[in-house]
Every structure is written in structure tokens, then in C-alpha cells.
Design brief:
Number of strands: 4
Strand order of the largest sheet: 1-4-3-2
Number of helices: 5
Largest sheet: 4 strands, antiparallel
Strand content: 15-25%
Shape: globular
Radius of gyration: 17 Å
Structural class: alpha+beta
Bound molecules: heme C
Distance between the termini: 36 Å
Number of domains: 1
Helix content: 40-55%
Length: 199
């Protein structure tokens, strides 16, 4: 990992450490309050989202889009793993039109993403789209949360309609089945997804 990578992981780790402390406080509450869980989930995705965006902006400025591919490809899972390790919550990104098959949605996530699309189509602002539920998984109660990720202008370099040919060639190489192109500003690029076992 290079110096910027270490710096990124350190910042995410500090943020995640703060969240882990808050999580202990939530766990200490009898019954585990639902709105507190939602708040924890929100903070978890906010932390990852902010760090990813600033790492992307910096990388785009420093090395251009081809170099910045590494930020999405390496920093995103790295940051997600760091947050997960520190907080005990699994966090990641998913999409109906994913670039990396490792980010493909599971059936619950697919349903939520489809409902986000419907809510967006009926006029709800993309920044407000979130959903949570407690699901049963093999007899264990799991808290799940998703928050939509709207497509911003800066995302179009790598997810838009007209990609730079060199960048497109590089993406073809790394992601042969890439579905994450052709997006427009305001469309849903995907969602953050968080979960943790309640007991
Ligand atoms: C420099 C190129 C680049 C830019 C700019 C970029 N991305 Fe990505 N994005 C990628 C790559 C590469 C992946 C695949 C990451 C992986 O392998 O997990 C990806 C994956 C994703 C994923 C995970 C789902 C999937 O498709 O695999 C989401 C969500 C996402 N990007 C959102 C965004 C958003 C939102 C922005 C703008 C704020 C953005 N990206 C800007 C290159 C980029």
C-alpha cells in the first residue's frame, strides 16, 4: 500500500473507532433502540462515502481517471474492510448495474434497489432514499440498512455515457462484464449496504 493508501486507511480507521464506541453505547441500551441503529448505520455509510469521495477527487486531480480507477477498485473494499473490522458491521456497495460482480446485490438488496428506483421515479429526492429492516437469517436476527448513492457529475468520468477511449480500454481489461456505464447525473448509481447480527 502506498503512503496515500495508508493515510486513507488511517482516516477511515479513526472514524470507525469513534463509531465502534458509539456502537457499544447502543448495544448497552435495553432492547437496542431501532432509531439508534438507523443512526449508527447512517454514520457508517457517511464515513465510507465521504472518505471515498475525497480520495477520488484527490486521485482524479493528481493522476487522471485511469490512475483513479485504483481508488474505486482498491480503496473502496479496503475502506469497507477497515470499517467492518473496527465496528463489527459489514458495509459495502452494491448496484443493479454493477461493475464488479463481487458487488452484485443479494435478493434482499435487489428488492430494495428496485424500490429505490420506484421511489426516485415517483419524485422522491435521491439523497433521501434509505431503507432498513430486521431480517431472519438461519434463526439469527440481522439488522440491514441501505442508502442510495446518486450519480454525481464527477462520477460520469468512469460511469457516464462518453468514456475516454483509454479509460474504457482499461476498464474492459479489469471488468469484462462491466454494466456500470451510461449513467446520468441524478440517476441511482447504487447503494451502500450495511448489516450486523443483533444477537
Ligand atoms: C476513476 C474512475 C471512477 C470514478 C470517477 C468513479 N468510479 Fe465508481 N467505480 C469505479 C470502479 C473501477 C469500480 C469497481 C470497484 C470494484 O472493483 O469494487 C466502481 C464501482 C462503484 C460502485 C460499486 C458497484 C459496482 O458498480 O461495482 C459504486 C456504487 C460506485 N462505483 C459509485 C460511484 C460514484 C457514486 C461515483 C462518483 C461520486 C463514482 N463511483 C466515481 C470507478 C470509478
Amino acid at each position: 500500500m502506498d503512503a496515500k493508501g495508508r493515510d486513507f486507511v488511517r482516516r477511515v480507521a479513526i472514524g470507525a473507532g469513534v463509531l465502534a464506541l458509539a456502537a457499544v453505547a447502543v448495544a448497552a441500551q435495553p432492547g437496542g433502540d431501532e432509531s439508534a441503529r438507523v443512526e449508527q448505520a447512517r454514520q457508517t455509510v457517511q464515513l465510507l462515502g465521504q472518505e471515498l469521495r475525497s480520495a477520488l477527487t484527490e486521485a482524479l486531480r493528481a493522476g487522471g481517471p485511469t490512475a483513479a480507477i485504483g481508488v474505486c477498485r482498491i480503496r473502496a473494499p479496503e475502506g469497507a474492510a477497515t470499517v467492518s473490522a473496527r465496528t463489527g458491521r459489514k458495509v459495502g456497495r452494491t448496484s443493479l448495474r454493477y461493475r464488479n460482480p463481487a458487488n452484485a446485490p443479494d435478493p434482499w438488496e435487489r428488492q430494495v434497489l428496485a424500490s429505490f428506483e420506484a421511489r426516485l421515479a415517483s419524485g422522491e429526492p435521491p439523497g433521501r432514499l434509505e431503507h432498513h429492516a430486521v431480517v431472519d437469517r438461519g434463526g439469527r436476527r440481522v439488522f440491514r440498512y441501505m442508502k442510495a448513492i446518486p450519480t454525481r457529475k464527477m462520477c460520469l468520468v468512469c460511469h457516464g455515457e462518453a468514456l475516454d477511449p483509454l479509460l474504457a480500454a482499461r476498464l474492459d481489461e479489469v471488468y469484462p462484464g462491466d454494466r456500470a456505464r451510461g449513467f446520468r447525473v441524478g440517476e441511482l448509481r447504487g447503494a451502500f449496504t450495511v448489516e450486523w447480527v443483533l444477537e
